[in-house]
Each structure stands twice: as structure tokens, then as C-alpha cells.
Amino acid sequence: MKILNNILYLGSFFGSLLAVTSCSEDFLERPPVDAIVDAGFYQTDDQVLASTALLYSKVWFDYNDKASYNLGDFRAGTAFSAYNDRGNVLFNTTGNTPENGSAWRSFFIVVGQSNLAISNINQYAGEAVSPAIKKMAIAEARFMRAVAYRSLVMNWGAVPIIENNLELLSDTTVSRNTPESVWKFLTSEMRQVAEDLPATPIRPGRITRWSAEGMLARFYLTRAGVESAGSGTRNQAFLDSAKYYSERVITQSGLSLLKNYGDLFLFPYDNNSESLFSLQWVYSPGAYGTQNSTPAYLAFSPDIANGDGWGGDKSATWWMLGQYEGIKQTATGMQGRTVDQRLKATFMLPGASYPEITQTIPGGEQKLIVPNPGGDNNFVSIKKYVTGKAKDVGGLSASQNYGHDTYMMRLAEMYLVHAEAVLGNNASTNDPTALKYYNAIHTRAGLPVFAGPLTFDIIFKERLVEFAMEGMAWYDLVSLHYYNPTKAYAILNSQDRGLFATAPDVFPNPTSWTFTKTAWSTTERTINANSGNFLLPIPSAELSQAPNLQKPAVDYYSK
User: Fold this and answer.
1) Quick check: 29 pLDDT over 60?
2) 542: closest CA among 8, 176, 289?
3) What kind and span of H or E run contains 364?
4) How far apart, in Å, are the Cα atoms of 66 and each of 62, 311, 386, 486, 538?
5) What is the C-alpha separation between 116 and 122, in angstroms, rounded?
6) How many C-beta atoms lie closer than 10 Å to residue 86's C-beta?
7) In this model, does residue 546 exceed pLDDT 90?
8) In the predicted model, what is the mean pLDDT of residues 383-403?
9) Ramachandran region of residue 405, left (φ > 0), alpha (ψ -120 to 50) or beta?
10) In the 8-state DSSP scheme, what is residue 437?
11) Greatest extent of the chain over all pairs of C-alpha atoms, in Å
12) Is 450 exposed, middle or buried (0-12, 13-18, 19+ CB in 10 A)?
């Protein structure tokens, strides 16, 4: 029998959990054809693994499409759009902001589909399915559910924990759960998941126990501040746990940092030695939802894309550019250059060359040289995840259809998690291991060895430049906000998110750039982050259909 056909539509909120019932693409009813939800499907190891394969892609599509950078980077202030997505850029995201709704919907689809996978595997796995594969597949689903809930609780605060979709058929009292109990659930879940996943990937791109232990390091670093109520200090036991798990991943996983930072985003980079967890997109002509659509919105022009390339007004913010060593404030703006290789790999400065990308020019083509449009307003365009035309990636791309993966966790994060966990509640540290791990990231970027001491501001800045345009910065600010909201607001409210012009000293291949604020653009340069607007509002459509979401949150107790 069809499991999905037995799930009733229970309003927009529950509908977002179970959106598969009405999706025109027969969402998650493949592979092969309408079989993934059949009771007779889960009869072999391959079929069980197929049942969790789309948990690595399609269920995340609505988040990855545009919400990932709108929430993770626009709201955080690392990048902006001059004319679109302004609610997120200006920090006034509302219940009707499209990316707010699509992120909420996507995360709960992940939760719902993970729950259904767990239920179906437990109920229908045949005798030929090996116990190891059954255990692993269930662990994969629990992993995805926990990762989705981490995003839900950090964006919206109190959210309802749902471990069994089918119970919604008879339970109309589902309420939001307190952030503290959500975090307790997350860490408890991920500890069990780590025990059940294999140490090496059973297939390329599949998660391992090191993926789970990496998430535990991330979870515990954040959870250390969750119950602090703005006290400015973090729970030492949880900091110790973050240190423990991050060091295990660094020293025992067998993973390694890529030698050159820029190689992380050069085709083909999927499932490299630094990837702990990536969304597994596939270029597939005619298919929808399993491909990576994000590059379509980031590439600055159709000249370097495939009939898309709609990111002409997207740019690093003035504030973000100031985070790179060597770019310094002057009396009239900013000026300089940086040896930090992460800038060129993340953002495109006028005159910079990218031989891996083909650019259409009048009368022909050339290897990309970023144009210098001049004027008093132009953009430092997005480079990460922009890989060029189909000919640049072996023919494996088309309009809104790209096959390269999205990083959800890289090994580099473990090095900085460890350094921050060691720093803990201290003002600074010269701990040799923390410095060694910090410098592994810092020097890979081409920067000189940092002698110390490490402080929160130094580690936070390193995270900004390491993970810019990977949807990470917002969650770093939320982690800080748990225990030091005043500092989080101060960072956000100090940012300049307004228009500016960038001029190279020579063209092409400049040696430095001058940055000048656009004189006529005097409004919308800063935001006012505060306790009333820091968390996202629950999407209006959900509140209208699920009034329990407006009730006071209660603690969650796992069944």
C-alpha cells in the first residue's frame, strides 16, 4: 500500500511536513517509479539505500535554491543584493518574506521525509536487508532530521519537534518546544547517530560517524551558550564536548584539508577529502529538484552562465571586504590588497582573472576577466559555487541545472570549533593546539603564521572569511546571541550594507583596489538588530493554519 496516500492534509504547517502528497513532481516517489514508498520496496540493501538517497538532495531544494544565502549571508551582513531580497538585507524579514517561508517549508520537509524513511524501514525492511544497512539508513534519516532541526531552532527559536508524522493524524495539540529542549534532543539524537554510522562512506557522498561527530562538535559549541540567558559565559561541559568531538574528527577521521583553498570550489570538487557532509546534487536534463539551482542566482551575468546568471546586483558588503587582511580604512574609504586567497575564491574583484570560467565577449569568448564597469556604484560579485558555462564543467550544466554539491560541513570548521572551544570563557588563549589548528586554516589561505594570543574576535573573523557565502555567518551570530546578545547586536549594527564602487589600480590583473562609498546612497546603509527582530517570524501561512504555533512553548520529552 502507498504510505503517503494515507497521510491527510492537515493545514499548511502539517502540509509542509507532508508536501509530497500534492507535489506535481511526485515528490520523493522515486526511484525507481512510485516505488520508494511501497511496502514491497524495502527488500534489498540497495533498495533501502535508495530510500534515503534523496534525503541528500531533493528535500533540501527549497532551502538551497535561494534561502540559504538570503538567511545565511544577507541577514548576517557578509553579502547583499542591491535591488532584490531587500527584506533580508535590511534585517526586516517578515512572515511573508519568500525565503522565510521556503526555508521553513524545506526544513520541515526534511523532518517529515526523514520520519517517513525511519517508519518505512522499520516496518517494511525485508529479511534480505542486512542489519548493518538497516541501522545505517535509519541513522542517515535521524542525522538529516537533526540537522534540519538545528536550522529551525536557530532561525525561529521554539519549534515543534515531530518524530512521527503519522501521529499527527490523531494529535491536534502539537505545540512548539522550548529551544533548550530542542537542543537537548539534537545532541542526544546525534550521539546515537554517531554510534550507528560507519567510519567510512558506504558510497561516495554518504555520511559517516565522522559527519555525526562533526555535527556534535558544532552542536555542543552552540549549546554551550543556549542556557546562558545572555550572561556572557558558556557551559564548560558543553565546550569540553565540542573540543572532544572536533579533535576526534581532526585526528581520527582520515580526512584532510585541501592544500589550496580555491580548489574547494573548482570543478570537479565533489566529495573531496575535506567534505564532512555535502548535499549531493545531480545534473539531470529534464529533472527538477535534484539539481543545484543556486549558481543561477549568483553568477553576475549570462556571459559566464547558461542562459541564467541573474546575480548582477549581488555583492560582498563593504563591511565584509573590511574583514580581509590588507584592505584598510582610509580617510575617503578603503584601499589595499590582500594575500588572503579566500577573497578571490569567494568574491570577484574587477580585473581579476578566472581561467576556469569562459566569458562571452563581443565577437567571441575568452577566459574570464572580471569587468571594470566604473562609475560610482558597482559590485564585488559572488564567485563561490559559480563554475561557468557547460563547456567549463564537462557539459554537465544548463540553465538552473548544475550538478556540483553544496557543502554543509567542512573539516576546516572542526579546526576553528576546537580553537573556540579551548578559548571558551577566557578573554584569550595561547594554547598551542588551539593555535596550531587556527593556523592550519589561516596559513592555508596564504597568510603568515599568527603568533597569538587567540581571542573570540580573531576566531570569529577567521570564520567569516573562511565560510563567507556558505550560509554560515548567520548561524555564528545566532550562536553568539545565545549567550551575548549585546555583542551580536553590536556586530550587526556596525555593518555597512550600502552601495559602493570598486576601482582597480590597473586593468587587468590589478595589484590593489580602492573602495569608495556611493555618495548619493546615504540611506539603508545600516540596520537596527534587536531582541524584537533577531529571530525570524514564523511564516504567516503557517500561523493562519496552525494556531498552536502561537501558544507558549513547552519542554519536549522524547517518547
Assistant:
1) no
2) 176
3) strand 364-369
4) 7, 11, 14, 29, 18
5) 10
6) 14
7) no
8) 96
9) beta
10) H
11) 74
12) middle
| pLDDT above 90 for 287 | no
Residues 22, 24: Cα–Cα separation, whole Å:
6
CA distance 156 to 288: 28
Q: Which residues contact 254 (CB under 8 A, 6 or more apart)?
A: 200
Who's near 364: CB < 8 A, 6+ residues apart?
A: none
Residues in contact with 381: Cβ distance below 8 Å, sequence separation at least 6, in sequence order:
300, 311, 312, 314, 315, 347, 348, 370
The torsion defined by the Cα of 37, 40, 43 and 47, in degrees rounded to 10, comes to -30
Whole-angstrom Cα Rg for the chain: 23
Q: What's the sign of the alpha-carbon dihedral 148, 150, 151, 155? A: positive
3-state SS, 451-485, equals CCCECHHHHHHHHHHHHCCCCCHHHHHHHHHHHCH
Cell output for 5 = 496516500
Residues constituting the chain: 559
* HSE-up of residue 207 (Cα within 13 Å, Cβ side): 34
pTM comes to 0.93
d(CA 235, CA 310): 44
pLDDT on residue 485: 97
Of 419, 498, 510, give the one whose Cα is nearest residue 460: 419
Report how far apart, in Å, the C-alpha atoms of 223 and of each of 158, 178, 216, 217, 462 are.
Answer: 14, 13, 10, 10, 21
Number of other CB atoms surrounding residue 437 within 10 Å = 23
Element (H or E) spanning 407, and its range?
Answer: strand 406-410
Flag whether pLDDT at 365 surpasses 70.
Answer: yes
Residues 443, 316: contact at Cβ < 8 Å?
no
Question: Which residue is listed with cell 541573474?
Answer: 310
Weakest mean pLDDT among 14-18, 208-212, 487-491: 14-18
Residue 224 contacts by C-beta under 8 Å, 6 or more apart in sequence?
234, 235, 236, 238, 239, 242, 421, 483
Give, in order, the Cα–Cα distances in Å from 311 to each of 277, 351, 379, 398: 26, 18, 10, 16
Q: Give the C-alpha separation, 446 to 217, whole Å.
A: 27
**Per-residue pLDDT tens digits for 471-515:** 999 999 999 999 999 999 999 999 999 999 999 999 999 999 999
Q: What percent of the chain has pLDDT over 90?
A: 87
Instruction: Report the interhelical angle of 98-124 vs 45-53 (nearest 10°).
Output: 170
What backbone torsions phi and psi does residue 198 show, to the nearest 5 degrees?
Answer: -75, 160
Give residue 8's pLDDT. 24
Distances (CA, A) of 511 to 59, 242, 342, 514, 518: 44, 41, 16, 11, 23
Query: Cell triple for residue 152?
Result: 529551525
Judged against a pLDDT cut of 60, whether residue 532 lies above it is answered with: yes
Query: Is residue 418's pLDDT more than 90?
Result: yes
Q: Are 90 and 523 in contact (CB under 8 A)?
A: no
Give CA–CA dist 356/394, Å, rounded: 12
